[in-house]
C-alpha cells in the first residue's frame, strides 16, 4: 500500500519536509516510510499489551500505524511544538475514524532525555532522532528504570548510525536479537532495522 493510501486509511497527514530543523543535537524530522514499516512488522511482532515509546515521533506516523496494526500502547515524544501540535491534530482525526476504548495513544512535548520512563514501557523506537550524546542519556534512564522495575525491554533502531552501534555493542549490556535488512542494504549498510534486548528478570 502506498503512502497516500495509508494516510487515507489512518485519516492522518504525516508527510512533508522538515521546515523547522535548527539543532545539531536533534536531527531533521523524517517519518519512517510506510513500506519500511511493513518490512519491519513482517519480521517483528507486537502485542496489544506492549508499551512502545517513539523518540522523535514528529507528526505521529509510527504511533498510529502501530496502534492500528496491533492495538498496542504508544507514546510519542517530540521536542518541536509545531510537530507536537500536528500529532495532536492527527490523533483527533484518527480517533474520529477509530474511536479508542481506552487511552492507548499519547504524545508529550519534551526533550527525549527529559522523558520519565514509565515502568510499563518495554519497547523503544529510534529513527536516528538525535546525537549519540542524547542517546546515551536516554539509555541511562532506561537502565535506571530497569533496575527499579525489572522487566525485558527492546530497542528498535531504523537506519542506525555507526556511533549508535558502537555504543550499544561496546558500552551497554544490550544484545542484538534481530537484524532486518531492507532492499537497499547492499548499497547502504544503514538501510536496516536492528533490535536489541536486555532483560532484568
Protein described:
This protein is an alpha/beta fold and 201 residues long. It has one domain (32-198): 3-Layer(aba) Sandwich (Rossmann fold), CATH 3.40.50. Helix content is 36%, strand content 21%. It contains six helices and seven strands; from the N terminus they run ααβαβαββαβαββ. The chain has helices at residues 3-10, 34-43, 61-70, 81-97, 132-148, 162-171, and strands at 51-55, 73-78, 105-109, 123-126, 152-158, 175-181, 192-199. It has a seven-stranded mixed sheet with strand order 3-2-1-4-5-7-6, with helices on one face. The longest helix has 17 residues, at 81-97. It is globular, with a radius of gyration of 16 Å. 34% of the residues are buried.
Write the layout of secondary structure elements.
Elements: H1 3-10, H2 34-43, E1 51-55, H3 61-70, E2 73-78, H4 81-97, E3 105-109, E4 123-126, H5 132-148, E5 152-158, H6 162-171, E6 175-181, E7 192-199
Parallel strand pairs: 1-2, 1-4, 2-3, 4-5
Antiparallel strand pairs: 5-7, 6-7
- Measured by DSSP, the beta-strand proportion falls in 15-25%
**Count of β-strands:** 7
Query: What class do helices, strands and sheet pairing give?
Result: alpha/beta
Mean pLDDT: 93
Largest sheet: 7 strands, mixed
Rg calc: 16 Å
* CATH fold-type name: Rossmann fold
- The strand line-up of the biggest sheet is 3-2-1-4-5-7-6
Regarding CATH, which class? Alpha Beta
In CATH terms, what is the architecture? 3-Layer(aba) Sandwich
Organism: Turicibacter sanguinis
Keywords: Methyltransferase, Transferase
InterPro entries: Methyltranfer_dom, SAM-dependent_MTases_sf
GO molecular function: methyltransferase activity
